């Protein structure tokens, strides 16, 4: 199994290196007057960067022939749509108010520009593979009301200033800024409006070396205030973890002392006085209901947990960095496909420890447990995106590529590893044989039932990582990029440890009151609990009124996939930890 993981990770690094090399040219050198590649990418509302559209969806100046660049799988999945531009920014060639084009804006064009300016649309371009952004226009509120009852005046930027920094013969940095003093008033519904679009280019020398030119995109996260916030989050999580571990250790020692006292008392009636978990030793090892589905949940969680750790490794070695176009999407697809060996092996081996037949069904359920909801969700999202003309809509060719990766890479690895897991299975021999008939569960107090335990089990883990959840969500939705993977990794480990410790303690408490139906409650009830708190956090965090239905459905469905991922991998971590600590007789431990 270890060899399979090592091989999968090596192949992932190799494939990802090839993909990154294809999309990110390194160490380009230019002479004065050389053409430097400039591509327009997309436009979208600043309040919802996840909702983007192709650059030429707006009536900008455009070439006679728009040529889309050849893109990698990750770039398409990321919503990038690079195309050629009319701007001509030759190396070390300064320009002042150069004409881009003379365009006659129709009444429909004016209304379209007013709409996007009202929603704070921005544009994105790439110059020598460096991202740059700028706003399309601005609004000004007047002290008087206009004839149509609107107090806003709309201005379209018709001049853009490009400031380029260079070091020797290499481009280091670029900024684009619309000139607010050179804007055209488009408040009125004129029949037509003639606009001269212009741009200027200024060059400045810098001492920053080429290897550090991407550091500016991580600079914000490295500021002192951001570091203090992250360190506060880390200390908060660590304190909660230590307190919980201390309470758990004290609880177990108290129980152990009581058991030893009863064992050393020499009372012949000691056996009759036994209460709690000792009474259910003949029911603890009874097979859980829906064994195939249970093992599929466990195996899928193990696969996603492995995938998360491998993504952190890729971030640590520098393969994933901010604005490496499509890098994260490509790595997610490839790592998920290659970690299918983990899901197949665990599902078949764990199932065959309890039942000799039916492991094939378990492997099949493992393959579709996350991919099924994922493809359904993305199909709905893709349909909505295509209807809106957003770049989140995937072309048919890209969909087929992803399906082929799943069919010809993920599923064969899943089946092969399942066969290996079944072949090298080990038989589980419980220390006490399960009774023929399950013991009746006594009536429990309200605070020992599933719902109160769910609320308690989810409160601590979600509160411990609340600050990092903010950074994670803003990264997914596109507001900013998390550039401190070490802090995020530590928070992820603490989250897994917290859920595992809570699982051990609460499952032990459940068995102490002679409730032996712990298998599903250990994972589902306490896994759902933390995700309920995460969902509430998401609702409180993003109380933003979006003007478009597409933004709501995009954020909601991506949130559902993230919650499902978190539910599966945290369940796997706490379930395996409980088995290894409390039930060490299992072969998997």
UniProtKB/TrEMBL annotation:
Q: Where in the cell is it found?
A: Endosome membrane; Golgi apparatus membrane
Entry protein name: Transmembrane 9 superfamily member
Q: Which residues form the signal peptide?
A: 1-22
Q: Does the keyword Membrane apply?
A: yes
Superkingdom in the source lineage: Eukaryota
Q: What family does the database annotate? A: Belongs to the nonaspanin (TM9SF) (TC 9.A.2) family.
Organism of origin? Linum tenue
GO cellular component assignments: endosome membrane; Golgi membrane
Family matches, as InterPro entries: EMP70
Q: Which Pfam families does the UniProt record give? A: EMP70 (PF02990)
Keywords (alphabetical) are: Endosome, Golgi apparatus, Membrane, Signal, Transmembrane, Transmembrane helix
- The primary location reported for this protein is membrane
What stretches pass through the bilayer? 231-253, 293-321, 333-351, 363-390, 396-424, 445-467, 487-511
Which GO annotations describe the biological process of this protein? protein localization to membrane
Q: How does it sit in the membrane?
A: Multi-pass membrane protein
Q: Does the keyword Transmembrane apply?
A: yes
